[in-house]
Design goal:
Layout: E1 21-24, H1 30-40, E2 46-49, H2 51-67, E3 71-78, H3 82-93, E4 99-103, H4 106-115, E5 122-126, H5 134-139, H6 148-161, E6 166-168, H7 174-181, E7 186-189, H8 208-213, E8 218-221, H9 223-226, H10 231-245
Parallel strand pairs: 1-2, 1-8, 2-3, 3-4, 4-5, 5-6, 6-7, 7-8
The structure holds orotidine-5'-monophosphate.
The site of orotidine-5'-monophosphate has 18 residues, from strand 8 and helix 9.
């Protein structure tokens, strides 16, 4: 990096500010997901479908959302031998989703980039899960003292070098990741908690405004919206907070 390069860069902001909020449909059935999307109405433009819904009819529902003009993030966190990842991504790329996650292992990222060739699908590499902190890494066999931030740094550098489209990290690491990946790659941060909401199993968290200020392009929020008494109001409040924090 040239010394003249500013440390804080942001990639091109989403044209519609609502697209910066990705709402996680962590729900057990398509019926419940459809009801949530209906309640959220035009406050939600971008939805994430993860394990729970994907394995309960979520792929068909993804097609339905895309046909209605919503954007879809398929959060499948793929990780397997290279050939399986490449062919899997090739199949998924036909669905018309905007984002797909893979774990940020070099073989996996390389295969995913090959598999999406020729499609508009963007691959996001999940660096270190937001529910992990140092002890969880040690429990998983990483060297004692390895911090989440150290591992995020290494994986963000590898993702950049392999041509990955975007990085998933916790919001406290967004600024450091932006310095690594520059403005051409997206930064997507889950583990977002509006002031006063429950952290649950998330460990590396920030508020929507702080995540945006540190350089996140998109925030992923599930429980604070879908479990709210008024999911539409909860989504609107986060979009307002994003808007207020956007320079
Ligand atoms: O890839 C993700 O989206 C993801 C990565 C990560 O490190 N942490 C994380 O929480 N997520 C997902 O983001 C969502 C966060 O949900 P809430 O904690 O309910 O807002 C869940 O659907 C997670 O699967």
């Amino acid at each position: 990096m040239s010394s003249a390069m500013p440390l804080r860069m942001e990639s091109a902001p989403a044209r519609d500010i609502r697209d910066r909020l990705i709402i996680g449909l962590d729900l057990p059935s398509v019926e419940e997901a459809r009801a949530a999307v209906d309640r959220i109405g035009d406050a939600g433009t971008f939805y994430k479908i993860g394990y729970q819904l994907a394995y309960a009819g979520g792929f068909e529902f993804a097609r339905e959302l895309i046909a209605e003009g919503k954007k879809v993030f398929l959060d499948l966190k793929l990780h397997d031998i290279g050939n399986t990842v490449e062919e899997g991504v090739r199949s998924i790329a036909r669905l018309g989703a905007t984002f797909l996650t893979v774990h940020a292992y070099p073989q996996t990222m390389r295969a995913a980039v090959a598999g999406k060739a020729g499609s508009s699908l963007k691959i996001l590499a999940v660096t270190v899960l937001t529910s992990y902190e140092e002890q969880d890494l040690a429990d998983a066999g990483y060297a004692p003292g390895m911090t989440a931030a150290d591992l995020v740094t290494r994986r963000a550098e590898q993702a950049r070098d392999l041509g990955i489209d975007g990085i998933v990290c916790a919001s406290p690491e967004a600024e450091r990741v932006r310095a690594i990946v520059g403005s051409d790659r997206l930064i997507v941060t889950p583990g977002i908690r509006p002031a006063g909401s429950e952290a649950g199993d998330q460990k590396r968290i920030l508020t929507p405004a702080d995540a945006i200020r540190l350089g996140a392009d998109h925030l992923v929020v599930a429980r604070p919206i879908i479990k709210a008494a008024d999911p539409r109001a909860a989504a609107e409040a986060i979009v307002r907070e994003i808007s207020g924090a956007t320079r």
